[in-house]
Amino acid sequence: MTLLLAIVIGVLFTVGLYMMMRRSLTKVLIGLMLLGQAINLLIFTTGRLQRAKPPLIPLGAEQISQSADPLPQALILTAIVISFGVTAFALVLARQTYTVLGTNDMNELRDTDIIPKYHPESVPEEEEGL
Amino acid sequence: MDIVLPTAILLLLILSGFAPFIQQAQPHRAGLLMAVLPAGLFLTLLGRLSAVLAGQVFTYQLAWAEALGVRFSLYLDGLGLLFSLLILGIGALVLIYGGSYLHGHHQLGRFYAFILLFMAAMLGVVVSNNALTLFVFWELTSISSFLLIGFDHEKEGSRFAALQALLVTGGGGLAMLAGLVLLGQIGGTYEISQLNQMADILRASPLFLPAFLLILAGALTKSAQYPFHFWLPGAMAAPTPVSAYLHSATMVKAGVYLLARLSPIFSATPEWQTLVTGFGLATFLAGALLAIGQVDLKKLLAYTTVASLGTMVMLLGWGSDLAIKAAMLYLFSHALYKGALFLVAGAVDHETGTRDVSKLSGLRRAMPRTALAAGLAALSMAGLPPALGFIAKEVMYETTLAAQPVSGWLTAGALIGNALLVAVSGLVGLKPFFGAAGQTPRHPHPAPLSLDLPPLLLAGLGLLGGLLPMTLAAPLVQASAQAVLIQPLKVKLALWHGLNPMLALSTLTLALGIGLYVGWQPVWGFTARLRWLGRFGPAHAYQVGLENLRRFAAWLTYRLQNGYLRFYLMTIILTTVALAGLAYLRSTNGLILRNDWGAINFYEVVLGVLIILAALTITRTRSRLATIAIMGIVGYGLALIYLLYGAPDLAMIQFAIETLTVILFVLVVYRLPKFTRLTSPPARLADFLVAMTGGLLMTLLTLIVTARPVVPHISEYFLQNALPLANGRNVVNVILVDFRGFDTLGEITVLALAGIGVYALIRLTIGRRQVIIPPAEEE
């Protein structure tokens, strides 16, 4: 199973990195999310696999000796929640970027100074009110 | 343990912090008030002279980073005492002088603060026993020098000069640090007093030469030795009291101090004698020659300072008992007369509005006290009896004459240099004050006592030192020379040595010097026509080097920071793969892979293949909704893996979060443009290949890591103590909310911040006109 998961990790990394190299901001975000999943699985696998033995102390017992390693699990749990926060923020930011700048193309998001030149019609006119 | 040394440094630092407030409270007397501290410290340390002469040392130690051998350890011996007295004594005078010189300047408080900061740092340099403590203080002097040279920071010239001095001395300081660390590594200690005792062990190491060269670089840059001398004339952009104090009397002597301090380790090696003596002589001649043609009082003094620093370095390089004695005597007499002359130049500038010697003359009537100070100091600089400079010059000639087998070269060099110094001392000390009154921008009138007294005191001491050498100069010279040589030495100084070759050389020097002084106008005019030679000098090399460095940085930034995310990622991936691959190739173990991968069930294979296929589909699909759905498949698939391998908590949170993410994506994604293919197929293939090397690396890493035995770690503790200590049976939960509760609190904070950010971004759109975007083209 380790071999299979190692391959899954490799594929997830490949696809995640590939998507992050796309020019569409949405695809970059998808790549970011995939990368997060890949890293979680990496931590999980390198923490050694232990089939069907969750780190739960059975009722009546004082402790548990043979079980899955709880530490990587705690780390990944935190990572999943944090990456959700990052994803949510990045999504809204991407939407806002598109609304304001009128482009979703990473190659055009290189420099805030030159974008209006390329998309003069898409620059919002909120400056009037300021 | 001696508490006086650290207290002195600490008090100066504290006073530095309060200086601007004292200046505000007492705008007219602040300098005088603050001078009380260094003056008091001066007297305290002077009281130790007899004990130090008898061979006593005062030490103080404070543990700092013991594991690294770093201690805050201070050490006062004869060498440190000589420097400390100069630093504190001249420092007190400069505080008094500066208050008057910069009276009414809106940043006078800042001036006091910087000067006191420097004083503390410089005192730290000369009493540090730990090499790394010394380095910290050393760099602090560079920084305070930077702040003081750039005191008139509105002027571009000042900023340029300040940066130049900082880069040259700071760069040398870093080299010195590397050298000191090497010495510490060889010797096993960073205590200089201990290193000085183990010269034989140090010299046997192959790292000895690199250490020496690096430390030499630090000393040469700090003491403005050729070819690093050019920052010192530039540093004349600082207010004159600063030039007198830092760039003549004290800071520029830090390199000389370092050479003297470490000479028990290095001296008497052929590298030391050749290089240090050679650099010193070259600097001596270069400084004296470059002084020709200058008409600015401060520039003249700056170049002669370079020459004098060269003299000291040359003498230290030679390293005989006589040479060390000569170096210490020269150092003492130079600090007195050069400090005085700088202060005189400041007073003249202050009262007449110009520092141009060709315009200054006949000031003795208007400024009699200043003229007296100038004359006395010039006497010492020219090396005329009965000033202390005369004795210093005699001892110097005595050294060069005895310096077999190069005595001819050294004596000839010294003769030329000294003759030029005689001419310059005439230009600085006589020319402005005698002859008919000249035209100056301001009508000259007597300088206030606070501008005249400090140079008079210094110059007077130089004269008294010559008249009573055994009382005033010999004890200090003997104490410091003993400390440099680490052996007792009897120093006898006298004004009259009888008719001997040294006296003949002095007479010749004087004759040559007077000749040069009388004919200074044609000589100066001739050298003015040679200015273009400066284009080949080190100052120009510095400028070109800096310019090219900037250009290179701009080019590199443009190359690397070009704004294409794709390019950044490729760079990161390929660099990581290359470095990891290199580490793998260099490792002797090679790739260790496990034979058994653990049992595998049929449904697990199906699950794995499903995730792989789903992930690969993402690269192909053009539908946004399909992408989101496939993301869901990947996420749920991972959740199932977590479930199968003993992580039910992970599975649950993954299911929940994955669902939430899909919902969120669906909500937002229709506000985003449809997917288009923007990149050409070959570029996509290149991207994919690069991404694949990254993925392959991660697969390999996973296999390598899992093939190794598990290292016992903290998980055992968690498993055993979850119930007894935290009363929880779900160990993962116990870790999150109990053992690492604060981490979870941090996580909650991050989530809350992200939530606030999301809310703010959504709110921002309200009330703003929506931009109508033309629909993106489908491929």
UniProtKB/TrEMBL annotation, chain A:
Protein localization: Cell membrane
Annotated Gene Ontology cellular component terms: plasma membrane
UniProt KW Zinc keyword: no
Highest taxon, organism lineage: Bacteria
Presence of the UniProt keyword tRNA processing in the record: no
Primary subcellular site in the record, as a coarse category: membrane
Sorted UniProt keywords: Cell membrane, Membrane, Transmembrane, Transmembrane helix
Protein name: Monovalent cation/H+ antiporter subunit C
TrEMBL record, chain B:
A GO MF term: antiporter activity
GO BP field: monoatomic ion transport
Residues covered by the MrpA C-terminal/MbhD domain: 609-674
Signal peptide extent: none
Domain NADH:quinone oxidoreductase/Mrp antiporter transmembrane: 128-411
Keyword terms, alphabetized: Antiport, Cell membrane, Ion transport, Membrane, Transmembrane, Transmembrane helix, Transport
NADH-Ubiquinone oxidoreductase (complex I) chain 5 N-terminal domain boundaries: 68-112
Transmembrane segments: 6-22, 34-58, 78-99, 111-128, 134-151, 163-184, 204-221, 272-293, 300-320, 326-348, 369-392, 412-434, 455-478, 498-520, 567-585, 597-618, 625-645, 651-673, 685-707, 748-766
Bilayer topology annotation: Multi-pass membrane protein
GO cellular component: plasma membrane
Localization, UniProt: Cell membrane; Membrane
Any single Pfam family the record assigns to this protein: Proton_antipo_N
InterPro entries referenced in this protein's UniProt entry, alphabetically: CPA3_Na-H_Antiporter_A, MrpA_C/MbhD, MrpA_C/MbhE, ND/Mrp_TM, Proton_antipo_N
MrpA C-terminal/MbhE domain: residues covered: 684-765
Protein name in the entry: Monovalent cation/H+ antiporter subunit A
Species per Swiss-Prot/TrEMBL record: Bellilinea caldifistulae
